[in-house]
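User: Can you fold this complex?
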Amino acid sequence: MRVLLIEDDHVLGEAVREHVAASGHGVDWMKRIDYAREALATVPYELVLLDLNLPDGRGLDFLRELRRSGSKVPVIVLTAMDQIASRIEGLNSGADDYLVKPFDLSELSARLAAVARRYGGDPNPLLRLGNLDIDLARRFISIAGRSVDLTAREWAVLERLLRRPNAIIGKSEIEESLYEFGAEIESNAVEVYVSRLRKKLGHDTIKTIRGVGYKVESKVEA
Amino acid sequence: MPSSVTARLILGLTLGTTLLWCGAVAYSGYTSYRELGEAFDRGLQESAQHLLPLAADSVDAGGSRAAHEIHHFIEGRNEYLSFQLRDSAGRIVMRSRDAPATPYSQMPSPGFSTVGDYRLYTDTDKTSGLTITVAETTRGRADAVFEDAEAMLWPLLALIPLNALVIWFAVRSAMRPVLRLSGDIATRSGQNLAPIDVSDQPGELRPIAEAVAKLLERLRAALDAERTFAANSAHELRTPIAGALARTQRLIAEVSDPGIRSRVHEVESTLKRLSELAEKLMQLSRVDAGISVADREVDLIPVLDMVVDDSARRLETPERIHYVKADGAKLCAHMDMDAFAMVVRNLIDNAVNHGAPGGRIDVRAGSDPDGIVCVTNEGPVVPAEALAALTRRFVRGQTRSAGAGLGLAIAKTILSQTGGNLELSSPAPGREDGFEARVRLSRIG
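Assistant: Here's the predicted assembly.
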């Protein structure tokens, strides 16, 4: 998932960026609203983490601007203001969730996953795919009751495909959700992760549509 | 002396006007006494001058017609008048019926004189040598003066209460702006610092009203500054703590050496304690800055929903919290949303930190019109004396778990500021163990 982090505090921003990247997501970190605006215009982000007090404006004004322009990208507000009124204002301005600083990074992960799932149209974190049981919230997967370890990048690829089962996801789309701006992407990175996933989960789990992309083929059951 | 200005004015004015009136009556009594005296004297003199020739005639002629006329004249004048007619040897040759047989005075000087109870006028007929002394008792004059004074005094006495009433009305209406101003000032408090209307104050009160308005303005600015500072310092403190905590958690994720890991874990838990303490101190400073009371009635159910949801999501097992709202549960009070959120958050934190580890926590919103919220947790019974001490600042129960010992004190302070109350009971009602915190909001606020 490609995430835009808008946060002006250097220490917190760095830690959040690292954490989200370590979960296998591609993160771009902007410290100002105007940079964030440019980034949003060029990259199809799947999630925005938004601080409210930024050097060039209020985060909530930016959020309203975003919603007015028709953007439906999920937004989680990260703020040091815990007043209920500002929180209600945040939710009314179109925030999907609200996390008051200081927060546990594990809580951030949980909220991130929950919001992403909600937008994927399936708020249920437990999926069954053939003989695979997948718990997206806890990042736990098992084949016929035997648990399988996946790396963060492998999870990110699988999540990306699972979010729209039966749809063909282009290679570049997957790449985009894995890597931030300026990251060096090896040309065959996606192929490598897909082949590792097939090795761990079974060859038929992910289908290759030659020249177009990949898909997970299944009726996803609760 | 009464302390009310109105009463002092009414008393002073009534007393003053009454005294002035009495003075005026006394003066006019004195004047009329003098005027009357002169008039009576004139009457006395006229009577003597009228009687003397008649009396001389009747003595000369020994005629009874003249004597009859004299008596008739005397009786026609007034009951206080009498006379004696003496010859040149001083013997009384004639006197009126009620005149004494002895002379009024041995050697009456001509003209006016006063002897005993009598006012006398003496005149002598040069040809006959007869002397007449006409006498009038002074009692008659006094009666006349008193009658006069009485005629003025009675209406005056009747007017005194009427006068007091008029003064009362006048003072009351003059005092109305003062009462309005003092009423205006009385309604101002930490929660209501609305400016005082200076424009329609009378001239005398305007300086006071303006001074109060300025004072309120400065007070409002100071309170605003304090509240803003409390809110801003929260922001300023939370951001670096958040950064440090997140960095530490990243470190835990990255280091593999178990020794270093456990030390970094210590740093993490210390940071969390610091964060919690800072949080509580910020809450305390906001509460002390007086944010608790809202100027209108607020529906607090959505706030309760939000806080319970938040608290649950922070737990490893959110299912620990059982949240039940009674049918028709209503939580309306003149209470700031943040203040109420602090109350509930602190009670839930308290239940999480000090209740049985992993135990069930019940949050119930009652349907009582006062607005009731109960937070109940499982756990050992807290002794009664410890229970009473829990709502004091920096007092913690017999526990080894985290906590600054401020949460319940903050909740209690907020509730007492808003007219509600906090009841702690252990064991929880209807159970043999556990702890219950029961919040009652105030309808009036």
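The longest helix of chain A spans residues 105-120. Residues 2-120 of chain A form a domain with the Rossmann fold fold (CATH 3.40.50.2300).
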